[in-house]
Specification:
six-stranded parallel sheet; Rossmann fold; eight-stranded mixed sheet; 2 domains; alpha/beta
Length: 417
């Protein structure tokens, strides 16, 4: 039976956000009549995309889905004040204007990043009795405070109280709460959310990304990388949260081997890392910058080992970066420099190794071990990576779990409408 589902998310294509779009399309395949309630596209530049006006609501059809866009103050820079206004203006406009979408829905699914996306469903739930399922992508206030967006002292303490109270209210109001990592579930239980209300559903990745194992040399030639030797790759944001000093400095302990450490991406920490490498005269680290999406298969094919790196912060211990799923699905060996959930997946899957953050010598030792692995053992790890993804993290597994939660919420709480 078809379920009328309102998908509430501040971010949606044409913004470069694949997860919300994939969720909406996957639910459509499972007989949900999905209507998207989202914002005027302005990510990642903080400027309204061509054809859109930030203060004017609009309606369009995208991928066959009805998409309602509500006004906001466009911003995505380092200014805490402007980012807060961005979140709050969309939360307010979606609450004032989104009631018509929620009123004609059996259930709502909220993509909680930022947490303020839940304001409209939580407020309108009492009036319309439309239940909602909340997908917690980021823990608030932890993620906001750890980012340094809000300063320290009184302002930080006040923000912690307000954001914690707001987030807890949205958890209580939700019919079901979805978390994307096991550690996140533990945090929410400690904050008073009923364990029976929480379900783990990993984000999935764009599938059919498997690296072409027959063309590594061709891929390396395309990217101007060494044709021979062992290539260790980090691809993604280059920021303080990734703490890539550890990986880069590990290369100093591998200069006796044909090992090249590749960093593909951009971010606030890139220039500092480049200076770090130049000052030490390191020749076995390459910075490729941000690659276009069409070159990512070549980068995967060129790599012998792919890296996830996280700073040593309690918040990141309960974080599951989307690149974990992308690496596993592509059938690559994995090194997680960090602690917590991502490290557990690397070990539990049999796909790779872990190393402690902040310890370049330990990272180098793991990479050295990976270079010595026999071909058959390497192939076994690559197969284990794909098997683990298909069993625990695939689109099929995740979308079916969301489908069941939404139908349960609609049947249990929607029956009283």
């Amino acid at each position: 039976m078809s379920v009328r589902t309102a998908f509430v998310t501040q971010w949606y294509p044409p913004e470069p956000v694949e997860v919300p779009r994939s969720i909406a399309l996957a639910l459509t395949d499972l007989d949900h009549d999905v209507v998207v309630a989202t914002g005027i596209p302005n990510y990642p530049d903080g400027v309204a995309h061509a054809g859109h006006t930030s203060w004017r609501r609009s309606r369009e059809t995208l991928d066959g889905l009805e998409v309602h866009r509500y006004p906001l103050f466009p911003s995505h820079d380092q200014s805490a004040a402007r980012r807060i206004v961005n979140y709050l203006t969309w939360a307010a406009s979606s609450t004032a204007l989104g009631w018509s979408v929620l009123r004609r829905s059996d259930v709502a699914l909220v993509y909680s990043s930022p947490a303020t996306a839940a304001l409209a469903p939580a407020l309108w739930r009492r009036a319309m009795r439309t239940p909602y399922v909340l997908i917690v992508q980021d823990l608030w206030p932890e993620s906001v405070l750890s980012s340094g967006m809000i300063g320290k002292g009184f302002v930080s303490r006040l923000a912690d109280r307000i954001l914690r109270a707001f987030s807890n209210w949205t958890y209580r109001s939700a019919a079901e709460v979805v978390v994307i990592s096991p550690g996140m579930r533990k945090v929410l239980v400690e904050r008073g959310v009923s364990p029976e209300k929480i379900t783990l559903v990993y984000n999935w990745t764009a599938e059919r990304q498997s690296a072409d194992g027959d063309r590594p040399r061709e891929a390396r030639r395309e990217l101007s990388l060494p044709l021979d030797g062992f290539i260790v790759t980090y691809a993604g944001n280059v920021g303080t949260a990734q703490a890539l000093d550890t990986l880069v400095l590990a290369a100093r302990h591998l200069e006796d081997l044909e090992v090249t450490v590749v960093v593909a991406g951009d971010g606030v920490d890139l220039s500092r890392l480049q200076s770090l490498v130049a000052d030490r005269g390191m020749k076995n680290v390459r910075f490729l910058g941000r690659l276009p999406a069409e070159q990512m298969p070549a980068l995967r094919a060129a790599s012998d080992l792919q890296v996830v790196s996280l700073a040593d912060d309690p918040l990141f211990a309960v974080t599951m970066p989307s690149k974990v799923q992308a690496i596993l699905e592509s059938g690559s060996r994995l090194l997680v420099i960090g602690r917590g959930d991502a490290a557990h997946v690397a070990e539990a899957s049999g796909a790779g190794w872990t190393a402690p953050p902040g310890d370049p010598e330990a990272v180098a030792a793991v990479i050295r071990l990976a270079t010595l692995e026999p071909p058959q053992a390497a192939l076994a790890r690559e197969k284990a990576a794909q098997d683990y993804y298909q069993t625990h993290m695939s689109r099929e597994i995740g979308s079916q779990a969301l489908d069941q939660l939404l139908r349960r919420a609609a049947a249990r709480e929607g029956s009283t409408r």
